[in-house]
């Protein structure tokens, strides 16, 4: 996706505030180019690939060609394909049909009430939460692949007992394979988007397990594990990784050293070209992309 087109401007977004908010679907790239790029990248990877995942810097269903890209990648590479979506366009039948091509879909469910949804996800003004939840329900009823949900908990926004219960009830009603509870662990769009305190997390986890089932709920409140390796050109890898999420400075240094690079030199040169920035969040340094 061109940076950063989205239907939402979530307060916790790792990509900063949405630059162009839209609900208009468009073709952005030639699907054949995307399929070829993915196939070339996969050819360089040793070891097993679980999924090729659409994690764009914006909402992936805004891409009118997503169905062709999903089927093209699966056909060309034999890999399963996953899509992470905010689900805001699933009220449209064509979006549900396009997404049904994926093997795994993760839908965002941060709120069950309109007011909380508007505060945390800051949606495009023409969207309605009731229609989105109905769209997710319809999608869940017919989707043949694996459906998972992700709920980002932000202190003071969606961590009240009532909201958590309403979210859990909705998620239980669509019976996902897994329901993930997450907290901001990388620099958010708004500095006030912080994780709820531990006692609130425990309460949210318990409410989720009560409604959805213990084996189906996972709480992601730890830093993500480091990437296993760095593929292709190191500078390009830093730029493409940071175009979808901030990268921990320590992880980047370790991987660059493993590739025989001088991390200080490479990162300084990207900084001087104004391609990256080093920011601090909760006492840790991150590399973020500049646009
Ligand atoms: S977190 Fe996802 S849905 Fe929210 S603004 Fe960022 S890209 Fe859009």
Characterize the structure shown.
The protein contains 10 helices and 11 strands. The chain is of the alpha/beta class and 291 residues long. It folds into 2 domains: 5-220, TIM Barrel (Alpha-Beta Barrel), CATH 3.20.20; 234-289, Arc Repressor Mutant, subunit A, CATH 1.10.10. Helix 1 packs parallel to helix 2 and helix 6 runs parallel beside helix 7 (198-212). The longest helix is centred in the C-terminal third of the chain and has 15 residues, at 198-212. It is globular, with a radius of gyration of 19 Å. The site of iron/sulfur cluster has 10 residues, from loops.
- Give the low-confidence spans: none
Order of strands in the sheet with most strands: 3-4-5-6-7-8
Shape: globular
CATH superfamily of the largest domain: Aldolase class I
What structural category characterises the helix and strand content? alpha/beta
Q: Characterize the largest beta sheet: strand count, sense, and whether it forms a barrel.
A: 6 strands, parallel
So what's the CATH class of the largest domain? Answer: Alpha Beta
